[in-house]
Batch of 2 targets.
Target 1
Amino acid sequence: ETGVTQSPTHLIKTRGQQVTLRCSSQSGHNTVSWYQQALGQGPQFIFQYYREEENGRGNFPPRFSGLQFPNYSSELNVNALELDDSALYLCASSLVDRGADGYTFGSGTRLTVV
Amino acid sequence: AQSVSQHNHHVILSEAASLELGCNYSYGGTVNLFWYVQYPGQHLQLLLKYFSGDPLVKGIKGFEAEFIKSKFSFNLRKPSVQWSDTAEYFCAAETGGYNKLIFGAGTRLAVHP
C-alpha cells in the first residue's frame, strides 16, 4: 500500500477560483514532486520541492505554486483556475539523492473545473 | 526538447497472447528509463527500470524491457498476458536535473478472457 496520501480525492471548482491540493509524503522521504495528468495524456512535471524550496519547475505558469512543510508534506496551489486545469494531479515523494528512482506516487486528486 | 513517445495508444489482446509496447525517447545523453503501470483508480506502480548495465531488465509481474541505445528505444514485453494486466502503461525517462520524469502519453491495454 502506498505511503503517499493525497487529499481531497475529488473536487469541483468554478473557473477563476483558487484551489489547494495536499500531499503527505512517505515516511523517510524528503522530496515531493507534483505532476498534472490531463485526460488521455501522461503525467507532466509541474515542480519539485526539497528543503521547503522549489527545486525545479516544468512548463507551468506562475499561478501554479507550492509549499513544502518541515514534515516534508506539500501543497499545490492553483490560482485563477481555467477549464484546461481539469486533470488528475499526482504527488510523488522520494529521496533527493535518488532522483526519480524510488518515487512513490499517491493516488491523485481529480480536479474538475467548470 | 526531450520527449518520450509511445507508439500504441490502445492495445487489445486475448489472454495468453504476447505483448510488446513500444517506447522511444529523444535525448542524446545519459538517460534512466522506467515503465509504470496504472490500474483503474490506483496509483502509478513501477514495473521496472533501467539505469545501466544489462540492457534486458526484468520487472514485476513477469514483465521485461530491452534498452536499445542505437534505436533510443525501451520496449516493454510480456510473453503471456493475463486479464489482470488490463491497465494503462507509461514509459518515462529521467534525463538529469530536478529529478523529474518525462512521461509518454500512455498505452491503454485491454486483455479479454
Target 2
Amino acid sequence: AQSVTQLGSHVSVSEGALVLLRCNYSSSVPPYLFWYVQYPNQGLQLLLKYTSAATLVKGINGFEAEFKKSETSFHLTKPSAHMSDAAEYFCAVSEAGTSYDKVIFGPGTSLSVIP
Amino acid sequence: DAGITQSPRHKVTETGTPVTLRCHQTENHRYMYWYRQDPGHGLRLIHYSYGVKDTDKGEVSDGYSVSRSKTEDFLLTLESATSSQTSVYFCAISPRDEQYFGPGTRLTVT
C-alpha cells in the first residue's frame, strides 16, 4: 500500500532563508509524486510533479523537488523564502499511470515565513 | 483555473438532515473526485467517478453517496449528517496525471 509521510507539521523560516519541506513515500510500484500548495480558504494548487522523467523537478514560484529513489524521498525546496510562500503544503503519491483512485496525500506541512 | 465550481461554499446543518454538495466542471473531464480535508489528515478520498453513472468508493466512503448523471456534475450526498462529517469538502478533476481542485465547501454539522 502507498503512504506519504511529511516530517514536521509546522515549519518556520525567515524571509530570504532556504525552504526545505520533507516528504517520504512508500510505494510498491514506480510512483508519481506531487507537491500541492494551499493558501487560506482556497483549494489545492499543483506546485510540481514527478512522473518518471528528470529526477529534479522545477515548479512554479521558484520551488523545486528532487526524486531520490534510494531514499524514497521527494523533498521540496526553495532557495529564498518570500512572505507570499506562507501556506499549507501537501505531498502526494500515486501509482504511475493510474491517477484516478490511488492518489494518497500526506498530512500537510504549514509553512510560516518570518519577516 | 481548471473550471471547477462547488456549491454551496458554506453550509451549516443539523444532525440527521440530508445534505447534497455539488461539483460542476466546464472541462469535460472523465474523472472526478470528492475529498474531505481535516486537520492532521491531509485529504482523504470519499468517492470518485470515472464516467457518467460510473462511481466507486474511496478511503472514507461510509455515510456518503454520490451520483453522476452528466459529465459536468458530480454530487455528494450525506444521507443523514453527523457531527463527524463536519469538514471541508473538495472536488477535483483529473485531466492527466495531476488533479485540479475546486474552491471547497465548508460544512458544519451541529
